[in-house]
């Protein structure tokens, strides 16, 4: 149900189905295709989000079944994907129109791929130690920040106007 709701909201928001570019992956030098292709450098952030979220849920709710954790990850990713595509939130990212990293929303295919990456991150993280997931998350953040000049912290700073 959550995924159908996301599909409906993205359609209402006028998000395109895909980029129409025939590519599956956007490289950092193709910033205009970010969030439009199936995968892009930001897919790494979704893997990390799923991994960290699953470990936090497992830590706080060790009695939850894997299905319940998976459902929480899917719903969380779905909510994030809808919220990040709202015009108000897109404006919060504070990109100027000439910024090569300018974000103007996800394609529907990219949004569903982001949710799949989140679930994959959760599945990969559950058998790992929490400290290892945290170290991998920090490493992924550093890698993405250096690779494309963006990441969770940079986006947060931009959204907060710092």
Q: What does this protein structure show overall?
A:
- It is a single chain.
- By secondary structure, the chain is mostly helical.
- It contains 7 helices and no strands.
- The protein has one domain.
- Helix 1 packs parallel to helix 3, helix 2 crosses helix 5 and helix 2 packs antiparallel against helix 6.
- The chain is globular, with a radius of gyration of 16 Å.
Features:
162 residues; mainly alpha; 0% strand
Give the count of helical stretches.
Answer: 7
Low-confidence stretches: none
Alpha-carbon distance between the two ends: 37 Å
- Assembly state here? single chain
- Strand content is under 5%
> H/E order of the elements?
HHHHHHH
Mean pLDDT: 88
Shape: globular
Number of domains: 1
Number of strands: 0
In short:
This protein is 61% helix and 0% strand. With 162 residues, the chain is an all-alpha fold.
SSE arrangement:
Blueprint lengths: L1 H11 L30 H18 L5 H19 L2 H6 L15 H18 L4 H19 L3 H8 L3
Helix pairs in contact: 1-3, 2-3, 2-5, 2-6, 3-5
